[in-house]
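Before any further analysis, backbone shapes were mapped to integers, which produced the following:

***
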Amino acid sequence: MLLMLKLLAISLLFTSFTFADTSDTIEDFLSSKFSKNPQLKSVDVDVESSKPLEDLKGWNAYIVNIKAELKGKTKQVIEQKMVWFSNGSVITKDLTDMHSGDSFTDIVKPDFKSKYYTKEHLIYGNANARHKIAIFSDPLCPFCKAFVPGALQEMKKEPKKYAVYYYHLPLQRIHPASVPLVRIAQAAQNQGVKDVVLKMYAIKLNPHEKNINVILSAFNKAVGAHVTLKDMQDKKITQQIAFDNKVANDLMVAGTPTVYLDGKMDRTKNKYKKAH
């Protein structure tokens, strides 16, 4: 179904419309276009937020939530978050900077919601620290290994300056072993083991390892924990990992590491160093 919406999105590239450029207009226009899809029974379009594009005068980005029900004997509803761009007379699914080659879709992301700063995710610093850092990471991602440990070491030294929130985002297709690994890590965190997140980046493990016992042994050795197979199967852990996935989906986070500083995505990942 996502493919269906994406294919329809392609057909709307650089479509002209004559209405004023408002959120209501965007909703009406997209609802009208999506409703023409013969495989959809109903569709609801909601503009979550809009942002002006600093480098493109007159253009705005719209973060849009799509909820559609498929036609069929059984009820099937899908939800998808998308980014659209408009200058008031043209609407398009993507814009690319011809100088840098960067897609504006990769730049425009929803802001981090305050309700996602939970005490369960706070791994370092005080909740009332001057700056809030949110990190989405996969412990077996080489880019994460190169960034996260060093950044955490720096941030944990200044608890009044940084409140660090960590969210598990295992990239199953690339590092399948990270899926059980983050469950083990969550179990250790729930047991009160200290510095779980920081220590697990030292794990030496094949990202395609399938043997759970091997993964458990590697984790316990690196972290100094005693997590068992039964511990990692706790239903509470399933709910906690599902929450992290929900947050990532809501923010359209697809890669790791992804870093937010005070609610805004930091593509450089290093703005925290200049924060006062």
